[in-house]
Specification:
Subcellular location: Cytoplasm
Structural class: alpha+beta
CATH class: Mainly Beta
Largest sheet: 8 strands, antiparallel, barrel
CATH architecture: Beta Barrel
CATH topology: Hypothetical Protein Pfu-838710-001
Main location: cytoplasm
Number of strands: 9
Number of domains: 1
Oligomer: single chain
InterPro entries: CYTH-like_dom_sf, CYTH_domain, THTPA, ThTPase_euk
Keywords: Acetylation, Cytoplasm, Hydrolase, Magnesium, Metal-binding
Order of helices and strands: EEEHEEEHEEEHH
CATH superfamily: Hypothetical Protein Pfu-838710-001
Subunit structure: Monomer.
């Protein structure tokens, strides 16, 4: 008797917590107590982002559609608040187009930016460290002078019996991931400056308004 493996539907979930800035001049494994179990730095990146929306329909619903270095991405907020965000990420052109159509009623192709309008464009210099094998410590410096950091965890979540992951599965897993980030930041509090962080898009639009 032959058994056929059912295709497994997956989704990518991400949990992140922002921080104001690093409290040390350079992030190193032994820069404070307790030491990181391990730490390595990834190559610096220059990222070019363009964000798209339609009459703020998407952003007001916690959805960000962007083109990052030629690749389309959608980040759909699944909970949390400004500093503690939980997302489902889409990278398939078909999935993004279908989501935009559901959210806005616009049936637009990739070649016309899914029928959306550009709202923000800027470049970011990104420094990234991987700590304790899985926590991404990210420090972004934008070309308009703003800086903000994030601790990120990402996971590919599989559904059961070939089905898509349920919202309950997503929320339960993201709750666990967020708790782990909280514990990580508490343990290595010496690495992160106190103070209220400000997101890159918030800072970008504040700068635009100040010029009017």
């Amino acid at each position: 008797m032959a058994f056929r493996r059912l295709p497994v539907s997956t989704c990518v979930i991400e949990v992140e917590r922002k921080f104001h800035s690093l409290a040390v001049r350079e992030l190193t494994q032994h820069g404070g107590l307790p030491h990181f179990k391990n730490l390595w730095k990834l190559p610096d990146q220059i990222i070019r982002d363009s964000y798209y929306d339609k009459s703020n329909i998407l952003s007001s619903a916690g959805v960000w559609i962007r083109n990052r270095d030629g690749e389309w991405q959608a980040k759909i907020k699944k909970g949390g608040d400004f500093n503690n965000s939980r997302f489902e990420e889409l990278s398939s052109i078909g999935d993004i187009a279908a989501f935009v159509k559901r959210a806005t009623g616009i049936d637009g192709r990739e070649t016309i930016n899914f029928g959306l309008q550009p709202t923000a464009t800027f470049s970011t210099t990104r420094e990234t460290w991987v700590a304790d094998d899985e926590f991404h410590v990210v420090l972004d410096t934008m070309d308009f002078g703003h800086q903000v950091g994030e601790i990120e965890l990402q996971k590919t979540l599989a559904g059961e019996n070939g089905g898509a992951p349920t919202e309950r599965q997503k929320q339960q897993e993201m709750q666990i991931m967020d708790g782990r980030i909280v514990a990580f930041m508490k343990m290595y509090a010496w690495a992160f400056s106190p103070g209220e962080p400000k997101g890159k898009l918030t800072a970008y639009f504040e700068r635009l308004r100040s010029r009017v």
